[in-house]
Amino acid sequence: MVDRSSRLSRLSMHPRHPRESVFVGNPDLYRGDSHAVCSPYLRECVEAMEDCCDEARAVQEIIREGTYDLPRMARVLENERVFLLIDEKTVRRYKADLTDEIEPQINELIARAEKGLQVLLRRESVLQAKVEAAQSRPSSRTGVGVNTAGMSKLEVRRVQMLARQRERLEDELAALQKEVDDLELSQMKKR
């Protein structure tokens, strides 16, 4: 196993002894004030700082121990297939549970699909009847089909006005029929 202390950064290593002085001689010679008094709490502050550094180092070691194997574990867990061996009894039990859970929903979806199919079949038959009726009668759009040769201008205008009124009413009837069909379809979807 590789020595973990070699992996620690230089800044995270807590020195166990005080650093050497940067002064060539006695540091007291370099003090500007020979009567300087240090705070009595300075030692406690230094000890508290050392405790914090020790705690930080311990936490860092714990984190490193927990994560040093992360790259290898990530490669192992990259696999898409994971095999788990279980007995047939457990498989049958889970299959039965899944069937009990899903079957009512599937039955409801089938019933809704059948109702929707019935609505569509009815619409198809209505549309087929409309097509047959439109093909069997003479086209109302091309003209009235009335011989206007012996009529006065007033009678011809009246016939044309009635023809336009008939066309408008047929359009309204078709729009109302479409609205009824849409309402039936939306009612089926709500169920």
UniProtKB/TrEMBL annotation:
Instruction: Tell me which UniProt keywords the record has, alphabetically.
Output: Centromere, Chromosome, Coiled coil, Cytoplasm, Cytoskeleton, Kinetochore, Nucleus
Q: Could you provide one GO biological process annotation from this protein's UniProt record?
A: attachment of spindle microtubules to kinetochore
Cell location = Chromosome, Centromere, Kinetochore; Cytoplasm, Cytoskeleton, Spindle; Nucleus
List, alphabetically, the InterPro entries matched. DASH_Spc19
Q: Does the record bear Cytoplasm in its keywords?
A: yes
GO cellular component entries: DASH complex; spindle microtubule
**Coiled coil region boundaries:** 159-186
State if Metal-binding is listed as a keyword: no
According to its UniProt record, where is this protein mainly located?
nucleus
Similarity-based family? Belongs to the DASH complex SPC19 family.
Q: What is this protein called?
A: DASH complex subunit SPC19
This chain's source organism reads Wolfiporia cocos (strain MD-104)
